[in-house]
Fold Inter-alpha-trypsin inhibitor heavy chain H3-like.
Amino acid sequence: MMDRAALWLILLAVFLISATSDPVKKKQDVDIYSFYINSTVTSRYATTVITSRVANTLNESQEIQFEVKIPKNAFISKFRMTIEGTTYDGVVKGKEEAQQQYNQAVSRGQSAGLVKSVGRTLEDFKTSVTVAAFSKVTFELTYEELLKRRLGKYELLINAQPMQPVADFKMDVHIQEKPGISFLEVKGDLSTGDLTNAIKTTRADKDAWVTFYPTQDQQTKCKSCGENGLNGDLLITYDVERRSPKGEVVVSNGYFVHYFAPSDVPRISKNVVFVIDRSGSMSGRKMDQTRVALLRILTDLDEDDHFGLITFDSEVSLWKRELLKATETNLENAKSFVKKIRDRGATNINAAVLAGVDMISRHPREGTASILILLTDGDPTSGETNIERIMANVKEAIGTKFPLYCLGFGYDVNFDFLTKMSLENGGVARRIYEDSDADLQLQGFYDEVAVPLLTDIQLKYPGGTKLTKTSFSLYFNGSEIVVSGQITDNSVESFTTEVIALSKGSNVTYQDTIMTKDPSDVPPEDEDFMQRLWAYLTVKQLLERQVLLTGQEKEDENKEALKLSLKYQFVTPLTSMVVTKPQEGEVEVADKPKEGEAPARPPAKMPRPLPHGHGFWPQQGQGGLPGPPGDPGVSGVLRYNSFPSMHRGGRYYIDPLQAIPSSAVVAHDIRPDGRLLTVLAPPVHDNVFLLDVVGQSKPLCFEVPVPHKLKLLQDSASEFSMNGESMTGQSGFQIIAFHYKTKHHLTINTTSITYHDGQNHVEFLWGQGPTQHTSEDVSLILRSKGIAVTMGNIRVIIPLHKEKGTTFLWPAVQQQPKDVKFTGILGESGISYEEIPGSQTPTLKLKDQEVKTSWVMVKDYRLASAPVVGCWLVPFQAVVQRELSDFTVTQL
Ligand SMILES: *[C@@H]1O[C@H](CO)[C@@H](O)[C@H](O)[C@H]1NC(C)=O
Ligand SMILES: *[C@@H]1O[C@H](CO)[C@@H](O)[C@H](O)[C@H]1NC(C)=O
Ligand SMILES: *[C@@H]1O[C@H](CO)[C@@H](O)[C@H](O)[C@H]1NC(C)=O
Ligand SMILES: *[C@@H]1O[C@H](CO)[C@@H](O)[C@H](O)[C@H]1NC(C)=O
Ligand SMILES: *[C@@H]1O[C@H](CO)[C@@H](O)[C@H](O)[C@H]1NC(C)=O
């Protein structure tokens, strides 16, 4: 194990480190002649439409890309491409249905790249389409979100990065809020420099309009802009007037929403216990930032608050056994304690949280609010480590008395576990991103819960049904409680709301009745927004509750969420948007990235610390194989997905856009002893055959020493064969030849494709533009970067690769009949292996033999993008159990 670590980790001096900069791709020959972003916010519900119109100014067809960033919290609800008058709409389908239907594409990773997360708040939507010479395409993407009130304001974030200066660029934002807008501010890096002049804000009583029409020239002159034009965010923050503490009710078309955010209530003093992870993995910057944040938080405590501090690694230390009043002396003592917190040891979450619960429970105070805050950066590794048992223990100990908030620091936490544990105990989990502002993030979270105003809030709607969540344990100043539902009887003219809550231990009620037929309410064109708002909130809450449910209940709620997602065409974790591309008949699937997945690209060009508290390549389970980096299911493994890589269909790919050379630095960290550890990407092997393995996420691969002509795939029954010719010293194949039913002959080389069907002879050239040819049961679909060959029920894709000045072909079998025994190098399907635990060098059990293996990174040439993937490298003979001479042919 050490050897592996030593191989991959190299000590370098600090000065060797340089940030890898993204290669700037210039798009000539493509003219984005108009780019509109149109956002409408009605009662906090924001619907944003991005429309990009692009012309191919080249005299031949080419691939045109559309890439935009949208807020993570939003659901995509529409995507449409219009080419030469024909529209192609993305269709939202159940994930399983989409997966089954397009299984081939999905498992090959060709389809999952449409949406991925970037940074903390955004997701990236990307697709491309081939557009004929001098033709145009219009892309249109719509997404929807309910803006959440935090620290007294709503934030509408709009990202604009059209990739080039655009002659006709317009951003229009219209906000309509019935109670009136109390303040509005436009911020973000697009509001800096010369661009400030391009922003216009118009305010009326209930409406605000923000327009942003920068000229082409201005588009190159903001802080974050360059010759590629705009690149940045506009952040519109605002709040609404709150004239009535009873809240605001909006009714439209049989649906209602109730916004409840009283501010006339006195603050409740709180009992807060901080449970702080000081395990080894917290060392360095994380520990420093935690200390800084805690010192500030302590300063912000009110004198009538009571507080406790617990630090833990494998042991749990209490600053004081009891909660103490936040007097000046106590705070000073607490601060000296905080300054001395040092990292060490493992992570005993169970004992630490239970100690916190015990501390609060032993300290009951009338009319106060108690809060337990856990901060951790790792999985439980000491004491009770079984996650189910920890959750059961914590739930039983807390017994709904107060909420538990979990802050997960970095990407090595089991965020699902933290989410579930906090939801089970009336709180929420929040991710703290490892970055220079982590201390501010920690403090920001504390600020949100710093001022409790009400506890045990129940909301009642006698005339409502299908209500979203109506009971909340705490209401904090600056936040907002939102309930939406359907109106039972639409003919009734009034609608009543009732809120019952505790304020400093005494009951308070807020009752309100509004007239539902107020014509001034909502403009008629927005009639549907309320129903969509209700659906959005319902789906969000159903999805959130999923982690807490089991069995039939879970299934039912899952079904309900799916039903609504389909009805409103939301791309949620349960659905996928299937985009069928015009000429190519190719399919792409847009999935919502799972919350908490590491961003595809580092949010900033900062050194990315290694989680060395967990060891570098720890054992998998008990003494198993050292897990390959990025193994999704293994806790504590240094995750490759915290590097610039993305997760596709169970494998990890280095993002090809990053263009990281094989020797690039992918992470580094300063050790406590001051040395600098640098991780280099492992060497990348070329010319390796990859085999996907049934039921295993890690593929197998083998190298073939290249003689001249190879039998790739053959089935004598259907008289099918595919052979390839390679040249010494070159990657891939120069010629691939197909023969089928004696009369069909297809020869593909790096310049042309010739096909003879017994009578006719056709020839295509690579790069001539999309073409299709069909005769009997043979079909050829030629695209710019590959050709799809179907013969009977065998389908092979041959991408054309250009690399280091050479051009070559690579065969990728997409579909082959299950019941046929194929021969040839690629004839091996349905292979399986087991990892043998406990051996010195990684060993697999393959076809009843023990085979030594190593984890290598290879280029997957089966895909046009040739992403780098990890695989278990095994000898060729171990897979095919024959000699290489059995696979050579004399003639193609
Ligand atoms: C934005 O949408 C509104 C309402 O649909 C429409 O009137 C306006 O023209 C749109 N603006 C742009 C720039 O597309
Ligand atoms: C496109 O234009 C270039 C230069 O004007 C020319 O060499 C080329 O043959 C043209 N290609 C096609 C497909 O017409
Ligand atoms: C709640 O926050 C507002 C500002 O957002 C402030 O004016 C008010 O005093 C706060 N209320 C309490 C009880 O702290
Ligand atoms: C609040 O009201 C509920 C029911 O209306 C009652 O059971 C409870 O005792 C009241 N609590 C206080 C503190 O008055
Ligand atoms: C590809 O095949 C065509 C037709 O047989 C031939 O003219 C051409 O020279 C070949 N190209 C290469 C690079 O061998």
In short: Residues 1-27, 106-113, 598-682 have pLDDT under 50 and may be disordered. The domain at 2-242+570-591 is CATH 2.60.40 (Immunoglobulin-like).
